[in-house]
Write a structure and sequence with these properties.
heme; three-stranded antiparallel beta sheet; 2 domains; cytoplasm; nine-stranded mixed beta sheet; alpha/beta; TIM Barrel
């Protein structure tokens, strides 16, 4: 089982961000953390303890987890410690601006062994264009601090496909990233979503599939292998076990305002509003996931990463289409699992098979 903890506070709202995060609710931080611990206790008692389960991975995301002082997390780690597997992966996201050396050290002392920095670029003009609050130097310093403290895993997020990007400018960003002691890289193509400052400004995004292929090839040549459409790791041990859990359709707890849980073939949605969540952290809406939807999700997610899809999941008609795609060198079968050779084509291939 996986555990996701959502921190919805941010120093600034990035122009492309559609996550459930707020820059004007800092006065609610303490009340929010109290409510979060209440929901966490309920979930641990009812979904972990009663079912004799263990937590394999923890991911603290946001928002910006580093906007919450480290001591506020101490009780959370005390609560989850009895339920963790021996070598549990524990990740926190962090903003280079607010993740001080002291904050990172405290989180490491609590048991966090992986940190993911939302860098997005090492080019200051691009950072300003995206609405990021840090600069290149603070990003470099944060990664160096995490390494000197002794984090086992360090991820760097990079965004590409932004107006003005060229393969040369992106390679420059990647070169800086690879000059630093990172073990993992997440390279995301800019997406324009409703509710963001970039919405209705399609000119800020570059749609160039060839650019993606060039970027993937360059990252691979730098010694980081692609194991999902946007994720690259230095070695197998550096891959995100938490993300893999989602792609393998494992159950997960979602704790916090707007977090999503997946238990007993149903999704649970707590309130997105911080105020409503504080008022009743045990309220959530339920969505029953039908068997056919589970199958579709397993195929879509399996084709987007190196996890693949169990062959037995497909019916005879679908297997015929798989054979056809194998002939066209799009898929291959190994150890009774179907694998996709090109993650960028994942959705098209899955929909073709399921049609």
């Amino acid at each position: 089982m996986l555990l996701y903890i959502h921190i919805p506070f941010c120093d600034s709202k990035c122009f492309y961000c559609a996550f459930n995060s707020y820059t004007d609710r800092f006065h609610l931080k303490q009340e929010y953390m109290k409510a979060l611990k209440k929901q966490l206790k309920y979930n641990l008692d009812n979904y972990v303890l009663k079912r004799n389960k263990k937590i394999e991975t923890v991911f603290i995301g946001g928002g910006t987890p580093s906007t919450i002082k480290a001591f506020e997390y101490e009780e959370i780690f005390s609560m989850i410690k009895p339920f963790l597997t021996e070598f549990a992966e524990i990740t926190t996201e962090a903003n280079p601006n607010s993740a001080s050396f002291e904050w990172l050290q405290s989180m490491k002392d609590f048991g966090v062994n992986r940190v993911s920095f939302g860098v997005q670029s090492f080019e200051n003009n691009k950072l300003k264009f995206l609405g990021r609050s840090h600069n290149s130097n603070s990003a470099i310093k944060a990664i160096q601090n995490a390494n000197s403290i002794g984090f086992k895993g360090i991820n760097c997020d990079i965004i590409y496909g932004v107006r003005g990007d060229t393969i040369e400018s992106i390679k420059s960003d990647l070169d800086v990233a690879f000059s630093l002691p990172i073990t993992h890289l997440s390279a995301y193509s800019l997406t324009i979503e409703e509710g963001t400052k970039f919405f209705d400004r399609s000119s800020v995004k570059i749609d160039d599939e060839e650019l993606s292929y060039e970027i993937f090839d360059y990252i691979n040549k730098k010694g980081f292998h692609q194991y999902e459409i946007s994720n690259f790791a230095k070695n197998k041990e550096s891959e995100s076990k938490h993300n893999y859990g989602y792609w393998q359709h494992k159950e997960y707890l979602g704790v916090g305002a707007g977090a999503v849980g997946y238990i007993n073939s149903q999704r649970e949605y707590p309130s997105k509003s911080i105020e409503e969540y504080i008022n009743d952290p045990l309220f959530f809406e339920i969505e029953k996931i039908e068997e056919v939807d589970v199958k579709t999700e397993k195929i879509l997610l399996g084709f987007r990463c190196s996890n693949g899809v169990e062959l037995e999941l497909f019916n005879e008609k679908e297997k015929e289409k798989i054979d056809e795609l194998i002939q066209y060198n799009k898929l291959y079968i190994e150890n009774k699992k179907v694998y996709n050779k090109n993650f960028l084509l994942a959705d098209e291939l899955a929909l073709y098979i399921l049609d």
